[in-house]
From TrEMBL, chain A:
<dbReference type="Pfam" id="PF20256">
    <property type="entry name" value="MoCoBD_2"/>
</dbReference>
<dbReference type="GO" id="GO:0016491">
    <property type="term" value="F:oxidoreductase activity"/>
</dbReference>
<dbReference type="InterPro" id="IPR000674">
    <property type="entry name" value="Ald_Oxase/Xan_DH_a/b"/>
</dbReference>
<dbReference type="Pfam" id="PF01315">
    <property type="entry name" value="Ald_Xan_dh_C"/>
</dbReference>
<dbReference type="InterPro" id="IPR046867">
    <property type="entry name" value="AldOxase/xan_DH_MoCoBD2"/>
</dbReference>
<dbReference type="InterPro" id="IPR037165">
    <property type="entry name" value="AldOxase/xan_DH_Mopterin-bd_sf"/>
</dbReference>
<dbReference type="InterPro" id="IPR016208">
    <property type="entry name" value="Ald_Oxase/xanthine_DH-like"/>
</dbReference>
<feature type="domain" description="Aldehyde oxidase/xanthine dehydrogenase a/b hammerhead">
    <location>
        <begin position="29"/>
        <end position="137"/>
    </location>
</feature>
<feature type="region of interest" description="Disordered">
    <location>
        <begin position="1"/>
        <end position="26"/>
    </location>
</feature>
From TrEMBL, chain B:
<dbReference type="InterPro" id="IPR036683">
    <property type="entry name" value="CO_DH_flav_C_dom_sf"/>
</dbReference>
<dbReference type="Pfam" id="PF00941">
    <property type="entry name" value="FAD_binding_5"/>
</dbReference>
<dbReference type="InterPro" id="IPR016169">
    <property type="entry name" value="FAD-bd_PCMH_sub2"/>
</dbReference>
<dbReference type="InterPro" id="IPR051312">
    <property type="entry name" value="Diverse_Substr_Oxidored"/>
</dbReference>
<dbReference type="GO" id="GO:0071949">
    <property type="term" value="F:FAD binding"/>
</dbReference>
<feature type="domain" description="FAD-binding PCMH-type">
    <location>
        <begin position="1"/>
        <end position="172"/>
    </location>
</feature>
<keyword id="KW-0560">Oxidoreductase</keyword>
<keyword id="KW-0285">Flavoprotein</keyword>
<dbReference type="InterPro" id="IPR005107">
    <property type="entry name" value="CO_DH_flav_C"/>
</dbReference>
Length: 754, 286
């Protein structure tokens, strides 16, 4: 298969239009099936017993009383999930996180699970499980955990990435460093230097749908798993590995998904449900409560970041430096490393250095959250950039334009950029009417930039043409943001048929080859590439069949606007053959017509955005109100502009919640105080203004239509844009996210007190 | 678990008084059902009071208003007479939860849930509302502030039910108001709150006042000193500043996930000022 992924600059018919999504009616009528909407005959209810302690040795678990309770069909502990990870440290951590092995490492860590005939029996059974804990000292704060005096979470951890291997274990699992040039020298050339420290609290992705699955293990060793996930192929690999199954014997079907944002890239409940089903010999449904979702799944890192940036009087940045400390939960991660890579990615810098530290704390295992690690780094850097622009005496947009990265710039994390959108988003922001709108009393405006890598990855797609000429498209990337609509548009575009003739589905793991997860903003980027490839393969067969119907050489048949056309003077009397006509005749010309593709979608173009927002602060209470918000982002090519706008707005909305109110609050006892939507405050509708969007299209040279991923970048600038706006409105620099009313009021009062 | 739906208050009282184990009264269920779903309570007996005659009505009497224990908060907003007489009470009731919750929840339930952060309670306390209690020993009427005794605890004896909340008829030139602080715009719990009820003389001087602060102590605070600060004033800047100071000083808040001690103290004063200003305007003061 010679698939050419290069951008071709074609004119579009379907791509760029805004048809109704194929999953829309089912979703608004309640017919769509999410994780908890699936049931099997004889199904049991699974429930998990969780540690109430932040850090404790598990001396003994006695499940005998629970096992004797009538209606209980299986009780499992870590002993029922033996270690089959064979030296794979990352998978061992996943296993340990699914079911504590010897030590409970955070409030909410699973220690046992039951399957019973109903929820009431399952709840009663949990109460009958006796766990003998030996409490250990705990640490939940990222800075505290780095101190030498901090309780050690894992005494087998010795910091990686240091010049000399340390002799003592530590809560810092890894140090990473990026950059080029000489920052010491660079600061020597600066006329102004801004140096500040910032903190961000831990947030949860806040997906509305809790984790849910139904597992059914047969006595012949095969199994089915119905699950809400961003990547059913990855879940299959992980579950099969943890349970000692062959991947092909485990069929995983992804449900509709009520939000993932990176949080559903990771297994928690699924191996437990499979182990329960295997032991009970019956299907087991396991649905997390919201309390469990907060305590045991998801969250992003809490961070502590120091930034130092210097500039000359003319506004040129001479040096930039950051030290980033990110919490990982109790297991090693690479979260600070990603933060260190993204921190200065928007800028053209001669001298730049970033250092990341991965820090263990007694909190849930950190999981990806939409452009993971980038928003916190951007908050610190873009706050300091704003302050530096003020010091220099330049408009913050002009200052950023002057220092923005361009095509050919060596990025702060290494690679040299191709055509990129940071400059154009800044220019668009500069000339946006929002920038000139008047502000009232106690109101402030802020802006900030953001960067995300984007990802491509392994993708496999089938395109089948029905006998009636309608087209079914089977993809392996879960639809989290309208991708079935976008991919149907792409199939229609490439085949030259109407959008309504295409029906896209997400196929299960037994129906397609392996697909990476829908993460890294890859869903539409990679699956559209695979769909184009599959459609081109189908067109090749369609041409062959037309040639056969006409009895001419296939070399004389071209495909145009959904039709086979015979080229050349000798075929002048042949009419066109539509896709439908060829399909109807296919039974007599060689059977079904299909196009398949398998590829690694390389060349996901990097993505940039600039956000502008206006905030009003009540100086007597610290209350904030978001008055206006504008997102400008490069999409490469917006396949379905409505869903691109939706991604822009969704990322901004999540960023607004993160910036202003969302945070994990731990008590001194190391227990999470707010595991629910009442006190973990995501924004409600009336908290947000209409979020205005502007789509820029700077084609990605590595995609036939120029598409770039758009899902994640929109959450990168908001923390900083809002912090800059609040700081301008309140007259005091805010350095701690979330900027909740008590923090803002305290900052205002401290400034008043001088 | 036994669920009953008695038709008379006497039957409900008898069932509650005679029950063994834990019993719960169900009106809108916006607290009870959430607590049951969360596994925090599992009552042996649930007494649904919605079928009891008269409990779902707002009655206007010679003395004022009697709001039945099963009247949803949304219905309060549909009573023009009640809204005119007690706009502060109605605005407080209409802040509880969400629109959907307001279609179920009741001010009696809000009072008996005994949360110091309950939205309708500071407004009811400021309004001088009373509760009509029916129990095995008969009927009694008590001030609403004597019902909650601490978070989740009430002074009601076994078998006692509040059948109605009573609000007085208004003298001329009266107004009340309620304000709460939440970090969001709706669907939230008060971090701190203030209810103010004023009556003015013909020249606009405050002649009667009640000030209540919520979420700043184990129960809603009726701040007598704050009322004294307002009485005799025309709500000038100096009186408002004194009011804020007194209210801030009266708070006995805690640091918790919703706010700090300093924040609650400061904002209690700010809200008292703003609620007083609103109540004054509603009373016709200029």
């Amino acid at each position: 298969m010679n698939f050419d992924p290069r951008f071709s600059g074609r004119k579009f018919t379907s791509v760029g239009t805004r048809p109704i999504r194929p999953d829309g009616v089912d979703k608004v009528t309640g017919r769509a099936r999410y994780g908890a909407d699936f049931n099997m005959a004889g199904q049991l209810v699974g429930r998990v017993l969780r540690s109430p302690h932040a850090h404790a040795k598990i001396r003994k678990i006695d499940t005998s009383k629970a096992e004797k309770l009538p209606g209980v069909k299986a009780v499992i502990t870590a002993a029922d999930l033996p270690d089959l990870t064979d030296g794979d440290a990352a998978m061992y951590d996943v296993l340990d996180n699914c079911m504590a092995r010897g030590k409970a490492l955070y409030d909410g860590h699973a220690v046992a699970a039951v399957a019973a005939v109903d929820a009431r029996t399952a709840r009663q059974a949990l109460k009958l499980i006796e766990v003998d804990y030996e409490l250990l000292p705990h640490v939940t704060d990222v800075d505290e955990a780095m101190k030498h005096s901090a309780p050690l979470i894992n005494d087998a951890i010795f910091t990686e990435g240091l010049e000399e291997k340390p002799v003592k274990p530590s809560n810092v699992t890894k140090r990473s460093q990026f950059g080029h040039g000489d920052v010491h020298q660079g600061f020597g050339h600066a006329d102004f230097i801004v140096e500040r420290s910032f903190k961000t609290e831990q947030t949860h992705q806040g997906y509305i749908e809790p984790h849910a699955c139904v597992a059914s293990v047969s006595s012949d060793g095969t199994a089915d798993l119905w699950v809400c996930t961003q990547g059913h192929f990855v879940y299959r690999q992980h579950c099969a590995q943890l349970l000692g199954m062959e991947a092909s014997k485990l069929r995983v079907t992804s449900s509709e998904i009520g939000g993932g944002f990176g949080g559903k890239t990771h297994v928690w409940a699924e191996p437990v449900a499979l182990a329960l089903s295997r032991k009970a010999g019956r299907p087991v449904k396991l649905v997390m409560t919201r309390d469990e979702v907060f305590r045991a799944s998801g969250p992003t890192s809490a961070t502590s970041v120091d930034v130092r940036i210097g500039a000359r009087k003319d506004g040129t940045i001479t040096a930039a430096e950051a030290t980033l400390r990110y919490s990982c939960g109790p297991y090693a991660g690479s979260w600070a490393e990603i933060g260190a890579m993204t921190a200065f990615a928007c800028y053209r810098l001669d001298n730049v250095k970033t250092v990341g530290y991965e820090v263990l704390v007694n909190r849930p295992k950190t999981a990806a959250y939409r452009a993971p690690s980038a928003p916190m780094a951007a908050f610190a850097v873009e706050s300091a950039v704003d302050e530096l622009a003020k010091e220099v005496g330049m408009d913050p947009v002009e200052f950023r334009i002057r220092n923005a990265a361009q095509e050919g710039t060596r990025s702060s994390y290494g690679p040299v950029y191709g055509p990129i959108g940071i400059g154009p988003t800044l220019e668009a922001a500069k000339s946006h009417p929002h920038m000139k709108a008047p502000l009232g009393k106690n109101q402030g405006r802020g802006m900030a930039c953001g960067f995300w890598f984007n990802f491509g990855g392994q993708t496999c797609t089938d395109l089948n043409i029905g006998m009636d000429g309608s087209v079914s498209l089977a993809v392996g990337t879960v639809d989290v943001g309208g991708s079935r609509a976008s991919l149907s548009l792409v199939a229609a575009e490439e085949l030259g048929i109407a959008y309504e003739q295409v029906k896209a589905i997400v196929a299960d793991t037994s129906s397609l080859g392996y697909n990476d997860m829908t993460d890294g903003s890859r869903g539409t980027f990679s699956s559209s590439m695979a769909t184009i490839s599959a459609a081109r393969n189908a067109i090749k067969i369609l041409r062959e069949r037309a040639a056969q119907m006409w009895d001419i050489s296939v070399d004389d048949v071209v495909w145009e606007n959904g039709h086979a056309i015979a080229k050349g003077e000798k075929h002048g009397n042949l009419g066109r053959l539509s896709l439908k006509e060829i399909a109807v005749a296919s039974g007599k010309t060689g059977g079904p017509i299909a196009g398949h593709s398998e590829l690694v979608a390389d060349g996901a173009g990097v993505s940039f955005a600039t956000h502008i927002c206006d905030i009003e602060v009540d100086p007597e209470t610290g209350a904030t109100r978001v008055l206006r918000y504008t997102v400008v982002q490069d999409a490469g090519k917006a396949v379905h502009p409505t869903y691109v706008e939706g991604q822009y707005q969704g990322g901004a909305a999540q960023g607004i919640g993160w910036a202003l109110n969302e945070e994990y609050i731990y008590g001194k006892d190391g227990r999470l105080q707010n595991p629910g939507f009442l006190d973990y405050r995501i924004p409600v509708c009336s908290d947000l203004p209409m979020i205005d969007t502007q789509i820029l299209e700077i084609p990605n040279p590595n995609h036939p239509y120029g598409v770039r991923g758009v899902g994640e970048t929109s959450i990168v600038p908001p923390l900083a844009a809002i912090a800059n706006a609040v700081s301008n409105a309140a007259g005091v620099r805010m350095t701690h996210i979330p900027m909740s009313p008590p923090r803002i009021l305290a900052a205002i009062e401290a400034k008043r007190a001088g | 678990m036994r669920y009953i739906r008695p038709l008379s208050i006497e039957d409900a009282v008898g069932q509650l008084a005679g029950s063994a184990g834990t019993a719960a009264i169900l009106a809108g269920g916006s607290d009870l059902l959430v607590r049951m779903k969360g596994g925090f309570v599992e009552p042996d007996l649930i007494v649904d009071i919605k079928a009891i005659e008269g409990l779902s009505e707002i009655r206007e009497t010679a003395d004022g208003f009697s709001i039945g224990a099963a009247v949803p908060c949304a219905v309060l907003g549909e009573s023009a007479a009640l809204k005119k007489a007690w706009p502060g009470v109605v605005e407080a009731a209409k802040l509880i939860g969400s629109k959907q919750v307001q279609g179920r929840c009741t001010i009696t339930g809000n009072l008996c849930n005994a949360s110091p952060a309950a939205d309708s309670v500071p407004a009811l306390v400021a309004a001088g509302a009373r509760a009509s209690v029916v129990g095995p020993a008969g009927r009694r009427t008590i001030p609403v502030e004597s019902v909650p005794t601490g978070p989740g605890k009430t002074s009601l004896a076994k078998g006692e039910i509040i059948e109605a909340i009573l609000l007085d008829k208004r003298p001329p030139r009266s107004g009340d108001a309620y304000l709460r602080f939440i970090p969001r715009t709706e669907m939230d719990i008060a971090v701190v709150s203030a209810g103010v009820n004023l009556t003015l003389d013909e020249s606009g001087v405050v002649i009667a006042a009640r000030v209540a602060i919520g979420a700043a102590a184990p129960t809603v605070l009726l701040v007598e000193e704050a009322a004294q600060v307002l009485i005799g004033s025309k709500l000038d800047e100096a009186a408002l500043e004194r009011l804020a100071k007194v209210c801030s000083g009266a708070c006995r808040p805690i640091d918790d996930k919703r706010g700090t001690v300093e924040f609650r103290r400061k904002v209690a004063g700010v809200l008292a000022k703003r609620a007083a200003t609103s109540a004054y305007a509603r009373a016709g003061g200029k």
